[in-house]
Amino acid sequence: MSEMDRRRFLKVMLGAGGALIVGIPLRAAHAATPPVPLALLGDSWTRLSAFVSIEPNGRTLIGARAPDTGQGVRTALPRIIADELDADWTRVEVLALPLGVEDDNGKPRWLYGPQHAGGSRNIPEAWQDLRSIGAAARWLLRNAAAQRWNLPADRLTTRAGWVLSPDGRRLDYGELAAAAAQLQLPDAGVALKSASDYRLIGQPARDVDARAIVSGRQAYAFDQTWGDGYVAVIARCPYAEGELEHLDDSKARAVAGVEKIIPISVREAAGLIGEVPLAPGIAVLARDTWAALKGRTQLALRWRARHGGDASTDALAQQAATLLKGTPTTQVRNDGDFAKAFKAAAHRIKAEYHVPFVAHATMEPMNCMALVTSARAHLIAPTQSPRRAFEIVRKLTRLDAGSILIEMPRIGGGYGRRLDDDYIAEAVLLAQAAGKPIKLLWMREDDMTHDVYRPFGVHRLAAGTDRKGRIAAWQHHLASTSRLWHRGVPSDQLWTSEMQPDALPAGLVPNLQLGWYALDFPLWRGAWRAPSHDSNTFAIESFLDEIAHATHQDPLKLRLALLQPARPLPVQDGTFDSGRLAAVLKQAADSIGWGQRPPAGHGRGLACAYSAGGYCAHAFEVSVQSGKLHFHRAVAVVDVGRVVNPLGLDAQIMGGTLDALSTALKLEITVKDGQVQQQNFPEYPIARMRELPRAVEVISIASTTAPVGAEDLGVPSAAPALANAIFAATGKRLRHMPFAAQLAHMD
After folding, report:
1. E strands within 510-592?
2. DSSP assigned state of 112
3. What's the CATH number where 12 sits?
4. Taking a C-beta distance cutoff of 8 angstroms, is the pair 500, 576 a contact?
5. How far is CA 305 from CA 42, 239, 317, in A?
6. In the listed set 161, 191, 215, which residue is the last one of a domain according to the structure?
7. Do 266 and 386 sit in the same domain of this protein?
8. Mean pLDDT estimate for the chain
9. Cα angle at 220 between 420 and 53, to 5 degrees?
10. pLDDT score at 507
11. Angstrom distances, CA of residue 727 to CA of 2, 79, 606, 733, 742
């Protein structure tokens, strides 16, 4: 994998004699939802940094626009282009594009379309415009061949990097590149392939970076270095709202190699979480990493909390219990008359579920390379939100858009943490103050204690069924710490990050009430995999299981009764199809052997979820022996529409499943006296391989609908399916995450 800054990428693309370059036009690239491109290249296409370059020797370079955090988009997005192009994948080299931006009379002009990693949006956003990129290049090549052979273009075909004539002649794309570059696309647009002609889309492909990753050659931002610069580490205030009370840096300055001590003030960089440093700090800048770390240990510091110095998660749980006795802060949804229906119900069931704060714990801690002068800024950063990083740089430096370059190497894990760019703000501030390039490094302890944590929540649910066991009334009350805290969101909208008004079983139960209670707590919060779906689905799918057992119903049949008959329901991100969710649920049940008697001591559990346009169901078979959990089988069934790369989809669902199980079993962030108590992996123990399923069987439902992303889809239904399986095996219901301590006391 080649890593190139924008200027070198342009030089390579335009400097190779006869290269054909294809990209998104300036006038359409920055549209929030790119239209179906007509004259895709535009009149000035040779001035664009490109997606596609076909060189005279036939080698094809394809740019990958989105940051890759392990979700596989550096493979999937170029293959969308390559399929429409009819490229020979064995001769394709994928190049990671930097943030594509130019200055347009003081405003940024986005050159590549959307560039981000989050929300499972990359595949659906790319499906139309990247196919059009490939189709446009193929049209140019085919018409260049038609002119050379004096044949109608519609009589020619393309395959694997060649244009073919009916009489058996063929021309390599490289031979046609120079002539194709002189042609103009038709204003009427270029037709896309029919699905029956796909040769790469839908076929498995290994990650383009796989060999580099497993051999240790993959370069991450943490590995980058600049010769003439400083390594920086920061001692940060341990309180979410705190300040420096005392500093003596004399011993730190005496450490060999330490060059500068620079304070960082959050107030001076006024802004919202994700745009400024999370906490004030004292930065130690040195000639090498070890000197910087040694210097940091020699700082004599004392911090004080401005608010919440006595805050604790124990007290937070009590706050939730008290609030849930009263009226919700926000009535999220109210269908029918819950109180009346619940009172009249033949069976009434109640339960409460607890979800703790959790950290992202990415393998690559936060870091950033920054060079800032009066004329330019150059960053190398593992960010999921490069446009937000760009805005931070522009705000702090006042540079125009064309003077800011942001490179995005492969990222060593994101999970939503790098949607916030606080560490980039730190690096820019330090580079400005130091007057030299900065390599900012976070250690594991920095990362664990200064995260934007998944919110804490207590879910209280109640349901009433009729004599036939049909759910007639449903109430879901949630007390949680909104992840929109300190993000400029009005107080009456803080609930929007915590509950979805259209989440199951909304629209399927006649009398439904959803309410949210605002918990006040001084700890940074942010997006964690499948935000809010991960926590809410645990409560909802566990409670459906409890309803089934309380009313002597089969948990599968109870869910199917809710979902059938199949019908579309409008939801925030499109349309929810209850039939598609029922289909993945039935397939998961069939695959795990639902309805067949399990071996003695074994239990089976299932759960399902809808997230970001995709459908997923999990089914597990487990046993618990002497306090130890044993996985005997793990099945995940998904429907993500048309699959671009089946191998990549399998990896995403397996990874999401294992991450969700590890989190549900073992992980929790606690706060005492205003400070996070977990410092490193000994106190925050990621599950070991022996504690998780040996294999996750992933089954994909064949579909011809437009594809959706899957980076978070394997998460939401995994934890409740596990809890339901444990109940089936032991008769003991787990309502508090993490589960490990409770399992240890089971026979």
Report:
1. 511-518, 568-571, 574-577
2. S
3. 3.30.365.10
4. no
5. 57, 6, 21
6. 215
7. yes
8. 92
9. 100
10. 96
11. 50, 44, 11, 5, 12
Q: Where are the alpha helices (DSSP H) in 150-189?
A: 173-180
CA 630 to chain centre: 29
Structure-token pair, residue 16? 């190779």
Query: pLDDT tens-digit profile of 536-569?
Result: 999 999 999 999 999 999 999 999 999 999 999 9
The answer on 273 and 145 residing in a single domain is no
In angstroms, what CA-CA distances link 102 with 273, 277, 408? 27, 27, 17
Query: Torsion angle of alpha carbons 207, 208, 214, 219, nearest 10°?
Result: -130
Q: What share of the chain is helix, strand, coil (3-state, %, to 5)?
A: 30, 25, 40
* pLDDT value of residue 23: 64
Q: What is the pLDDT of residue 181?
A: 84
Look at residue 694 in the predicted model and tell me its pLDDT: 97
Phi and psi at 94, nearest 5°, equal -95, 130
State residue 56's pLDDT score.
Answer: 82
- Does residue 525 form part of some domain? no
Give residue 227's pLDDT: 83
Residues 66-80 as b or e (16 or more Cβ within 10 Å = b)? bbbbbbbbbbbbbbb
Tally the C-alpha atoms within 13 A of residue 268's C-alpha that lie toward its C-beta. Answer: 11
Residue 19's pLDDT band (cuts 50, 70, 90):
low
Structural domain total, the chain = 3
Ranking 5-14, 115-124, 738-747 by mean pLDDT, the lowest is 5-14
Claim to verify: residue 273 and residue 179 sit in the same structural domain: no
Residues 655 and 688 in one domain: yes
Does 335 fall in a domain? Answer: no
pTM metric for this prediction: 0.93
**Cis upstream peptide for 599 (omega within 30°):** no
The per-residue pLDDT for 11 is 33
Q: Kindly give, in sequence order, each residue whose CB lies less than 8 Å from that of residue 733, ignoring residues fewer than 6 positions away.
A: 351, 542, 546, 723, 727
Is pLDDT of 397 > 70? yes
Q: State mean pLDDT over 509-521.
A: 98
Q: Does residue 176 sit in the same domain as residue 58?
A: yes
Q: Which range of residues forms the domain containing residue 296? A: 221-307+361-449
Helix (H) or strand (E) holding 52: strand 52-54
| Three-state SS annotation for 428-481 | HHHHHHHCCCEEEECCHHHHHHCCCEECCEEEEEEEEECCCCCEEEEEEEEEEC
Q: Does residue 7 carry a pLDDT above 70?
A: no
Asked if residue 518 is part of any domain, the answer here is no
Residue 3 has pLDDT above 70, yes or no: no
Whether 153 is covered by a domain: the verdict is: yes
- Asked whether the predicted pLDDT for residue 16 surpasses 80, the reply is no
pLDDT score, position 26: 39
Residue 287 near residue 231 (C-beta atoms within 8 A):
yes
Distance CA 386, CA 110 (A): 12
The secondary structure of residue 45, as a DSSP letter, is G
